[in-house]
Amino acid sequence: MTVLAQRMRAQRLSEQATTTGELLDSVLALQAQDVNALRLAARARGVHDLTGDVVRTWAMRGTLHLLRSDDLWVLGPLSPVNVQRGKRRREELGLTDDLCARALPALREVLTDPLPRRDVVTRLTEVGIALDPKSQAPAHLMAYAAANGVLYRTLDDRYALLADIPEPGTVEQLWRRYRRAYGPATVADFAAWSGLPKGLLRDLPEIEDEPATPAGTTRMLGHFDTYLLGYKDRGLALDPAHARRVQTGGGILTPHVVVDGRVVATWRRTGTGFEVNPFGPRPDLDREIADLSRFLGVDGALTWA
User: Fold this and answer.
1) How crowded is residue 188: how many other Cβ atoms within 10 Å of its Cβ?
2) What are the helix (H) ranges across the chain?
3) Name one Pfam family in it (predicted).
């Protein structure tokens, strides 16, 4: 189907990238709350080693994503919404507006080098910002500081100061980059992906997508892969009859196999390799199994459920 072929190409699943920068220039961001899942998403798009000037921060839907530093303009349209959305929970955790305002310069003072969260909390206490390390308050304060352009989270789960960030972008700019990474797609899809309220999405321009032809591409995708997470309506790629086998709740996706844009199976790691549970005829997975096995450094034994 042409639409799915276009999406596969836009997501670099059929025409793969060779560097992290090239990949993120195309797809804008990869979901990154789970670093192992992030690496699987990059692998499926041709990149086996995440390098370069990249930042892991809270962006679309208030969720951790990996972006190029040059693309931190996305904080312009996203951060006010994310900050407001998290206000009630911050207050429940004792993170008042006054405390959060005092914490931002304090974080700039104490983050002299990348630190794990526990050390950040210790240093904040030393400068008068006391947080309960056993509560969710530190995590929510870090997300608030990231939304305000103060810090980011490294791939090894440390916190580091952001350098200068680009001028804030606009909703239309984000829409255009979303369409380049996910098109064809609707404004409703954009709202679901970005987390922006529909009231901010009026009068967005129409965008044409270049046609594409199915190329027989097969990819094994992991948890939280952006291919499905980029759309409100996933019915074109994922048959509703099988949706519950992939969408298990809580925003989690069971690792799945995509052939020419259609989800045709789920998969999981086993002690000796991989088990695949197809929805219909067995897909040809020889090349994907071989590449994924090399990437993970495991035996490539394949069993069928």
Assistant:
1) 13
2) 2-10, 20-27, 35-44, 75-85, 87-92, 97-110, 117-126, 137-147, 171-182, 187-194, 226-229, 243-246, 286-296
3) AlkZ-like
